[in-house]
Amino acid sequence: MLRRAALLLLMPLLLAGCGGPALAPPGVAVERVNLVLYQGLWHEVASSQPWYQEGCVCTQARYTLHGEELVIKNTCRRHSAQGQEYARTGLAAPVPGTGGAQLSVSFHWPFRGGYWVIGLDPDYQWALVGSPDRRNVWVLAREPRLDPGLLARLLETAKQKGFDTSRVRMTEQECGK
User: Fold this and answer.
1) Contact between 59 and 73 (Cβ < 8 Å)
2) Residue 10: which H helix or E strand, with range?
3) What digits encode the pLDDT tens for the residues 18-35?
4) Structure pTM?
5) Of 49, 59, 55, 58, residue with least CA distance to 81
6) Alpha-carbon distance 62 to 43, whole Å?
């Protein structure tokens, strides 16, 4: 009886992390992302450095299309380019009706988070990504660095779309590779 009551009390908490991702308001996310072109290696040029990336340098993400989902492998070095490598693997599924510009990402089942592509180079050389709560922003590029003027314009775009850019910091990419 006690076990059943505890389960009933905990069920809303367990299910809270299972809901679908919030949809981006019109004009926030790009209209369409070709996931075939999006796959591959991306370097994190700058980010708002959420808690789960604390101490990360040389941060990279590799996206591999598997069916209709992307397998994501995020890697970084802890605290220095020579630090211990840290890796996480997850899955990203396109949110229906968003043209692949909004993804539902999970690194730890059953919890999912939203991933909005809010800016994208026509040649897929850089991407501007934000979280649905607009607290986190990532600037990704195929190369470890971006032109400073372009980076400034991307961060201004994020700010104009309502994202908090005050915590954005450059990601060290002097990784000896």
Assistant:
1) no
2) helix 2-16
3) 445 678 877 899 999 999
4) 0.85
5) 58
6) 9
Say whether pLDDT at 14 is over 60.
no
- Cα–Cα distance, 18 to 157 (Å, whole number): 30
- pLDDT, one tens digit per residue, over 110-129 is 777 889 999 999 999 999 99
Per-residue b or e along 18-48, where b marks 16 or more CB atoms closer than 10 Å to that residue's CB: eeebebbeeebbbeebebeebbeebbbbbbb
Topology of domain 25-170, CATH: Lipocalin (2.40.128)
The domains of the chain are located at 25-170
Concatenated DSSP letters of 70-92? EEEEEEEEESSTTSPEEEEEEEE
The DSSP line for 103-161 is EEEEEETTEEEEEEEEEE-TTSSEEEEE-TTS--EEEEESSS---HHHHHHHHHHHHHT
| pLDDT confidence of residue 177 | 55
**Helix or strand run (H / E) with residue 43:** strand 40-47
Q: Please, how many CA atoms are within 13 Å of residue 157, restricted to the half-sphere of its CB?
A: 22
